Amino acid sequence: MNTELEQKTEGVLKAFADLDALVTKFLRHLGSERVDPLCRGHVQTISRAADGFTGQCLDTPYLVRWGAVVVDAEPALAEFEFVAKYASEPVVLTRVYLGLSGKLSLDSHQLVPLCDYDEAKVAQALAGLVLTGLLSSVIYAPRDRLYAPDEREDTPEDGGI
Can you tell me the distance from the alpha carbon of 17 to that of 8, in angstroms, rounded to the nearest whole number? Predict the structure, then answer.
């Protein structure tokens, strides 16, 4: 006898399984030879691990972590978060969302499409997002500060101006 709760649970478990299978396909594709190089000049690399992937952009390592996103009480998307560290703190460089349709998007409502998960240029699209996020992050921000007069190299020895 299937109760309404059992039917709902079965649907949710199937949606989680479908999403997990799609994430596995995406990661497998990202690590395959069919994917175009990230960008010229070896600015960025991605290394696939058994449970995810890491990357490096402009000599800054980053980690990609992901998890399911629930919409209307059912798993509908996988959110991929690209994170670097700065001063031992995580810095989110970008996020992308993979829908059950196989489309990557820049938002959880999938209103800003990026590409299909299995396109040859998917790594280049991700590289551009990571590079933009990195260059606009605190990691590459100016580190302006005020210097005491005795710290400055251009201070005259007599203290005059």
Answer: 14
Does the pLDDT at position 25 exceed 80? Answer: yes
Burial class (CB in 10 A: 0-12, 13-18, 19+), 80: buried
Region of residue 140 (left: phi > 0; alpha: psi -120 to 50; beta: else): alpha
What's the pTM?
A: 0.76
3-state secondary structure of 116: strand
Distance, C-alpha 106 to centroid of its chain: 10
Task: Give strand pairing partners of 81.
Answer: 65, 95
Reduced to 3 states, what is the DSSP secondary structure of residue 111? coil
Q: What is the DSSP letter of 7?
A: H
For residue 110, the 8-state DSSP code is -
Matching residue, tokens 């990026």: 114
Q: Which two tokens stand for residue 5?
A: 């709760």
For the chain, helix, strand, coil in percent to 5 are 30, 35, 35
